[in-house]
Amino acid sequence: MTVLFAALIAAALPFPAVQDAAALGRAGTAAFDRGAGAGVTPQTIGEETRCALYWDQWRRAISDGVPSAALLAALPAAVSEEATGRTASAWSSRVMDVHFERNGNLDAMHGQFEREAPALLSGIDNAVFGDVKAMDGLMEMLGICRNVPG
After folding, report:
1. Please, what's the b/e burial string for 107-144 (b: 16 or more CB within 10 A of its CB; e: otherwise)?
2. Distance of CA 54 to CAs 50, 51, 57, 147, Å?
3. How many alpha carbons fall within 13 Å on the CB side of residue 4?
């Protein structure tokens, strides 16, 4: 019965699930490396805010125990709990400073976070539970956003 139930759930998933944390970690590492090596950097305050959001939500997912310890161990050190905390804090400071300097407030930043966070959280859940395409997109974006300007 358990095998049948697992097969039914797997068939209902909207993505190709990877059950092996090591394999998913390898895919995530390749995507992170691809993003880091793409030579692309955020150019606008909106793109920088998106980078801050990605790092913040990844930090929250780790803090909430969403990715398994096995998956975290298989991903690059740059997205470990400790490194993510530093990068998320640096992005947050950068984006808050720029928004406040430009607008005198953080309303635009908070608005972008509110609009984009739900889809990103769903994507993170999909990524850590085996959706290779979601993992690819998440890790590639974190790779692109690995360096905070300034």
Report:
1. eebeebbeeeeeebeebbebbbbbbbebbbbbbbbbbb
2. 6, 5, 5, 13
3. 1
SS3 131: strand
3-state secondary structure of 43: coil
For the cut 60, the answer to whether the pLDDT of residue 3 exceeds it is: no
Q: Let me know how long the chain is.
A: 150
Q: Are 90 and 148 in contact (CB under 8 A)?
A: yes
Q: What is the pTM of this model?
A: 0.84
Dihedral class, residue 39 (left if φ above 0, else alpha if ψ from -120 to 50, else beta): left
Q: Which residues pair with 131 in a beta bridge?
A: 17
Q: Where residue 40 falls among pLDDT bands split at 50, 70, 90?
A: very high
* Cα distances (angstroms) measured from residue 139 to each of 34, 65, 93, 105: 9, 17, 22, 30
Predicted confidence (pLDDT) per residue in 104-132, tens digit: 888 888 888 899 999 999 999 999 999 99
Query: How far is the C-alpha of 47 from the C-alpha of 75, rounded, in Å?
Result: 24
